[in-house]
Amino acid sequence: MGVLSCMKYLMFIFNVLVFAGGTCLAGVGLWVAVDPAGFQDIVAAKAVLSAGAYLLLAVGIALSLLGFLGCCGALRRSRPLLLVFFILVSLVFITQLVGAVLFLVHWKQIRPELFLSELQRNYRGDESAEVFSTAWNTLMVTFSCCGVLGPEDFGNGSRFQELHPGTPWPQACCTRDGVLQAGELLGWEQCQERSPGYIHEQGCFATFARTLQKYISVPGTCSLAVLGIEIFAMFFAFCLYYNFD
């Protein structure tokens, strides 16, 4: 009985963690879904962000309900609840494994062409109050990058070139004395001449890809931790199911 009681409370603790994690995911999904301050306009492909937000919201709600179900099954010593919990966690576990495999197979197939076409069609310049342009200006200044692939993105018949025919690229591509957008330009004329040290030559797509590769271990570790928690939860549910009357 002592071991059984210990397993019951361990399962309760694990499910509290699942419930808390699901609540956090649902909160993030809801925050993105309501589009605070034009968050979805960082890229013009709003449908992708909307789908991701609602998917995150759905997964968060599902995990919260799953954690609540596991807690009730453990505390009430209910075999039907434990059986339902075991089946649902198994389905979630399999789905996550399939999703991880698909991500590893296809993530390198993401191409910058979609982002480039959106940038050339919608970006209007440094002084534009339109959300898409403002978001891109913030990204380029903050991450010290220029365009999707590089400064050339603002030529080739882009919307920016049409509005500013005498300007090769926006000031957001130029080096500043600080990372904040309010920082002074080191030299606008030198930036237009593409002098080394006065312009960000690196495109934002490559910058983000390098950052992702640098920190990919963080979400990977979190994913492994979640899978580990689910495995333990399934094990405890299985053991409790066959020991409860």
From TrEMBL:
It is a multi-pass membrane protein. The keyword Glycoprotein applies. The keyword Cytoplasm does not apply. It is found in: Membrane. Keywords: Glycoprotein, Membrane, Transmembrane, Transmembrane helix. One of its GO terms (cellular component) is plasma membrane. It holds the Pfam family Tetraspanin. InterPro entries: Tetraspanin/Peripherin, Tetraspanin_animals, Tetraspanin_EC2_sf. The chain crosses the membrane at residues 12-34, 54-75, 82-107, 224-244. Belongs to the tetraspanin (TM4SF) family. This is Tetraspanin. It comes from Falco tinnunculus (Common kestrel).
